[in-house]
Input
Amino acid sequence: MSLLLEPFAYAFFGRAMLAGVLVGALCGALSVPVVLKRMSYVGHGLAHSVLGGVAVGVALGADLYVGAAVATVLSAILIDRVAARRGLHHDAAIGIVTTAAFALGIAVLAVVPTRLNLEAVLFGNILGVDARDLTVTTVVAVAATATLFVAYKRLVFTVFDPEVAAVHGVPVRHIELGLNLVTAAVVVASVRVLGALLIAAAVVLPAAGARLVTRSFAALVGLAIALGTTASVLGLYASFHLDVPSGPAIVLVGTLGFLIAYVASGTAARRARRAGAREREVGRLSERGIVDATRTQVRA
Amino acid sequence: MSDLVVRVLDVDAAYARPTVLSAVDVDVARGEFVGLVGPSGAGKTTLLRLLTGGVEVRSGSVEVLGQRVVRGRPPRGVGYVPQLGSVDADFPLTVREVVLLGDAASSRPVPWFTRDERRRADALLERLGIGELAGRPIAELSGGQRQRMFLARALARRSELLLLDEPTSGVDLATRAEVLRLLGELHHDGLTVVLTTHDLNFVASHLPRMVCVNGTVIADGRPREVMTADVLTRTYGPGLRVVHDEDGHPVVTDAAPIPLHSGTDHASGGMPVAAAVVTPAEVDA
Output
């Protein structure tokens, strides 16, 4: 019990846990459209562009969040514009825009001396979560939740079948741009807890794992939020007790969750196949009059 | 209001620089059933997208159900059925949810649908003969059931005009017949239907009107009048001929036998060792 309660003796852990729960739930919800729309690389790219924004912002004497927000929002809009050009797809647009931002960040840090803790920006640091970080995370969580709530049906239609959604009056381009902007906001809010390099995993793992064990959209959303939140909570405890950066700890717990779902779905599929094979065999034997199918129980 | 559902007047259309369609004139009256035919890349799907605001109109004008259509502004009252393979067949949605999405644009901005909306979706599924599948994941549907589901989604928007992109491609003969029978019923109920297809003989036998497209409209009218060797050559190039069945319907076949190589003898240096010749009569059979 003390393992669970002891960390809360430190004020920073309470703040980190609150921020972690919000970030975990947000990343979990966002992972559903990201995985289904096959845009995992967007999270990866936007997270990389954070470094560019933070470096340029800090070098110019601006706030960390201002730099990160400007870089990710600008990247999200540029990705959208470049991908809209015929002959280019999202993967190419992301590869161009966000790696350029990352490269810019590294170049600026090499040239301009700053007091930026690069390791904390890249891998997350729960010691650094202060009241302002918590406010930023809460504002983003409320705004992103409200946006996803209002746009839910149109977003699902856009992710499932964008061509028909557009014909049926859904503003597909605005929905896609909105999704990119929400992703950008979540990435910015997650930097302190998860770190720029590991956010990408947090917006993929929850839905990727949940997708393996459910075929219902509502269950997928619920399970992804639960997995994201659980990974954050357990990861933060692991970070505290094992003295590892919070980002890697959360991502490793999330990966463990995915592996459990992977093994469980494989086992379930094998059982279903075996049950199907037994049923077919009983059917064949029954046709030949060897067994009575009505009295034969097929166990999975 | 005019009885014309579609009015395309001298239109040039393009996605980017090269013009895909030029000088296109097509009118479709309320209650018509029209088949658009032409080779791959001829602009059939583009012509459908022209009617849904999915392509840039360079010149001329497009009106659908009395609304002027420009890129990015789809007209109301149009249902669209895409090609079967265009969506993720394993997407985690139920049949009912897919149908409900058809009217998502005018539904309240909350994540759930009202009881009335769900009831209406179920009624559409019943009408299309797959009511019992409403709660099933779409991954469990056959090709024909999936087409019925997409038809229900297209109708969920209270559509007056139904546009279908190759509704019978990639399905077996029984499913094809099932889908076409269903379209016939919907047309009989008063819906205007425009579809694209590669199945010339289906158009000739069953549809009252066909439009041959290849960069522009080559011919437009009743299949018996339109389906001539000259029109087919101008639409598809040489290599096809038209014969007539006992009911007088035109039937398109290959103009010459197609040599089919059945195998290669690797031991003899890769030379073909057997060949079959298929005659038009055999293809027909």
Observations:
- The radius of gyration of chain A is 23 Å.
- The domain at 2-295 of chain A is CATH 1.10.3470.10 (ABC transporter involved in vitamin B12 uptake, BtuC).
- The interface with chain B takes residues 36, 86, 149-154, 156-157, 160-161, 163-170, 173, 211, 214-217, 219-220 of chain A (CB under 8 Å).
- The mean pLDDT of chain A is 86.
